Amino acid sequence: MLSKPNTLEDMEFVDPEYYNSLTWMLENDISGVIDTTFTVQHEVFGEMKTFELKSGGAEIPVTQESKREYAKLLVQWRFRRGVEKQMQVLMKGVHEFVSPHLLKMFDERELELVIGGLGKIDLDDWKANTKLKHCSAEHPVVKWFWEIVESYDEEKRARLLQFVTGSSRVPLEGFKALQGSTGAAGPRLFTIHLVDSKTDLLPKAHTCFNRLDMPKYESYEKMYEKLTCAVEETLGFLVE
Questions:
Q1: Which side of the chain, N or C, has fewer Cβ within a 10 Å radius?
Q2: Closest CA to 164 of 173, 174, 172, 156
Q3: CA distances (Å), 160 to each of 74, 88, 134, in order?
Q4: What is the pLDDT of residues 138-176, one digit of tens each?
Q5: Residue in 40, 62, 192, 208 annotated catalytic
């Protein structure tokens, strides 16, 4: 809706395994390891077909030098396959009511809040259905987290939830019904994960697991600054 290109980070939310595979390729030397071309195979009505990612792609090998272009084109193809016409019709209808230049005023998180609105988030339900990993409810970081959440207004709470889970909305059944995007059956609870990393780093969110990785910040003030910065300035998750 915002006419922004999809990125590799978007793939983590949709297909974590595919995301991990492409991330490995980008972070490692693939010389002599990966033997493929600028093509992708996809099953169509039970028949496996090959599609070129660029003109003449079947004759262009993927190399260490060209792997980033390959990953970018592959992500674009994965998100657009089979939906171009539907998206054109959808956007035509949207633009009959809202001018495209008005939509460009928002980023994707702001647009979700505009469309879905702000609902009241039940903090007791949130606390009761939060999983703690490598920490306890008595750890200072966990206590500070809830103090920070309580200090936020409804918009910031919604942005925090959006940062960690990919959505600013709570399921009708409450936080116990939060779902991940890994394809696993059953709910995936909001999770606070205490990690051993430098405290000058921002918290990292994994939207496919509804997990927030929190460094062991030394003070409430520092944690408030880092968490708020992550919520307001980043696009859902960080990739190191």
A1: C
A2: 156
A3: 30, 32, 21
A4: 999 999 999 999 999 988 998 899 899 888 778 878 899
A5: 208
Q: What is the distance of C-alpha 198 from the center of its chain?
A: 22
Q: What is the DSSP letter of 191?
A: E
pLDDT at residue number 238: 38
Cα distance between residue 10 and residue 5, in whole Å:
10
Q: What are phi and psi of 19, to 5 degrees?
A: -60, -45
| Amino acid residing at 229 | C
How many whole angstroms separate alpha carbon 79 and alpha carbon 19?
Answer: 13
- Residue 135 bears catalytic tag: no
**pTM over 0.70, yes/no:** no
Give the residue-averaged pLDDT of 200-219: 93
Surface-to-core class of residue 3, CB atoms within 10 Å of its CB (0-12 exposed, 13-18 middle, 19+ buried): exposed
Pairing type for strands 204-206 and 190-195 reads unpaired
Note the pLDDT of residue 105: 63
Q: What is the dihedral of CA 184, 170, 224, 231, to 10 degrees?
A: 70
- Whether the per-residue pLDDT at 222 is higher than 90: the answer is yes
